[in-house]
Each structure stands twice: as structure tokens, then as C-alpha cells.
TrEMBL record:
Designated name of the protein: N-acetyltransferase domain-containing protein
Region Disordered: start-end pairs: 1-21
Matching Gene3D superfamilies: 3.40.630.30
Keywords, alphabetical: Acyltransferase, Transferase
Lineage: Eukaryota, Fungi, Fungi incertae sedis, Mucoromycota, Mortierellomycotina
Domain N-acetyltransferase: 29-201
Length: 226
């Protein structure tokens, strides 16, 4: 019987824009740089320290396996290499230091012109962020600093987004504080959604920040977003 060939992992294009490292704070020292396959062992260790991140998100599994991390990175590299932009970064305390958290950005799909700028009538570009911080490093502002940088410097300035959105479980106060520290406002306070991994309904809230005042009338649409 012929041996099955091993699949070659999708490599990250080192020429992708916005890969970093970006120094976003001196005290404490805080860098963002592209997440790498070499971060997988630390991702697995951190995400298995306790169930806080599992409990606070809709997608993470527990226990978190190397295969979960590998698939997450490989899928990100496929999209990034197509667009030419990095979209997933590790939070670090030095340019090449171990991962202490994660932040990513993606874009809501275009819906045939259903998101329109109220003044210019062009289609809006809507970004979304997600993040987590190691339980060993919470309470030090890493999440807020990373989110602020990705929203302002990457999504608004580099990618030209009009609106950036994020969601959290209504009861997840630390995550909500991160979003509020970035300048986001709660658009939907209570939205009941089914979470497949939990096999039950949970209540989430939806936040947004707008690049200009003109789009503030374009709020989260429960039939399409987040």
C-alpha cells in the first residue's frame, strides 16, 4: 500500500504588509508581530492554563490542541498571502519573545450594497477584531493597547475601514472594558445567539467604532452581522 505524502504547511509570505514587529508601548514593553508556527507550543500551553478563554469565546476548544492552532494559522496564511496583508498578530514583550496574547482582524463580507455610506452612497468597509490575553498577563493593558493599535493604525489607516466591530458575551466584563477603552460603543446590548460548542444559547453584545460621524446611523444588523 502506497504511503500517503505529508502535506506541506502553507508558509507565511514574509513580504506581507503590516507584519511588524510594532512596538506599541515602552512601559510595559509591548510588541505586536505576525503569529508564527513557532508560536504553536506556547499557544497550546497558554490556552490550556484554565478555561477562562474557552468560556469567554464562541469558538475555542478545551483542551486546545496543536492541530487547532495549526489549522488556525494555516487558514490565516492562506487569506493573508492572497491579500498581501498580515491579519493575525502575537502580543509579545520583546520583538522575538514568546506569545503572551493574540489579536486578529477580518472583514465582513460585502452584501450586494446593503452597507452604504449615508452621505457618499458608496459601499462601506467593515472590519472586525478578536483577541485574547494569557491569564498570566491579564490586567496590564495588553488587550486594550493591541486593540487600539489594530483599530486605528491597521484597520482605519492602512486598510481604509469605515467601521470596526467586535462582540463579547454580555457577562464578559473584562472583554467589554477592552472594547470601551478603544473607544467602541455598545450598539446591541443583548442578542441571543446559539453557540455550537456549548450547544446552548448565550447572550452577546455588539460594539462598534466609526471613523467618522456620518456612518453612526449604520448600526449592527442582527440579520447579517457580526
Amino acid at each position: 500500500m502506497a504511503q500517503q505524502e505529508e502535506k506541506t504547511p502553507v508558509a507565511r509570505n514574509r513580504d506581507n504588509r503590516c507584519s511588524g514587529p510594532f512596538k506599541i508601548s515602552d512601559h510595559p514593553t509591548h510588541y505586536l508581530s505576525a503569529a508564527e508556527y513557532t508560536d504553536i507550543p506556547e499557544m497550546v500551553r497558554v490556552l490550556n492554563l484554565d478555561k477562562d478563554i474557552y468560556n469567554g469565546t464562541a469558538s475555542f476548544q478545551y483542551p486546545y490542541l496543536e492541530s487547532h492552532a495549526f489549522t488556525r494559522l494555516e487558514n490565516a496564511y492562506i487569506r493573508d498571502n492572497q491579500s498581501g496583508y498580515t491579519t493575525c498578530w502575537a502580543m509579545r514583550t520583546s520583538p522575538d519573545g514568546p506569545l503572551i496574547g493574540w489579536i486578529h482582524a477580518h472583514f465582513l463580507p460585502e452584501d450586494s450594497g446593503t452597507r452604504i455610506h449615508p452621505e457618499t452612497r458608496r459601499e462601506l468597509k467593515v472590519g472586525v477584531i478578536g483577541y485574547w490575553v494569557s491569564p498570566e498577563h491579564t490586567g496590564k493593558g495588553y488587550g486594550s493597547r493591541a486593540a487600539r493599535f489594530v483599530v486605528q493604525e491597521y484597520l482605519f489607516k492602512e486598510r481604509g475601514c469605515d467601521i470596526v466591530r467586535a462582540e463579547a458575551y454580555t457577562h464578559n466584563v473584562p472583554s467589554r472594558r477592552v472594547l470601551e477603552a478603544v473607544g467602541m460603543e455598545c450598539e446591541v446590548e443583548e442578542w441571543t445567539v446559539f453557540i455550537p460548542k456549548l450547544q446552548k444559547e448565550m447572550v452577546i453584545c455588539c460594539y462598534a467604532i466609526h471613523r467618522d460621524e456620518a456612518t453612526k446611523s449604520v448600526v449592527t444588523d442582527k440579520t447579517k452581522d457580526p
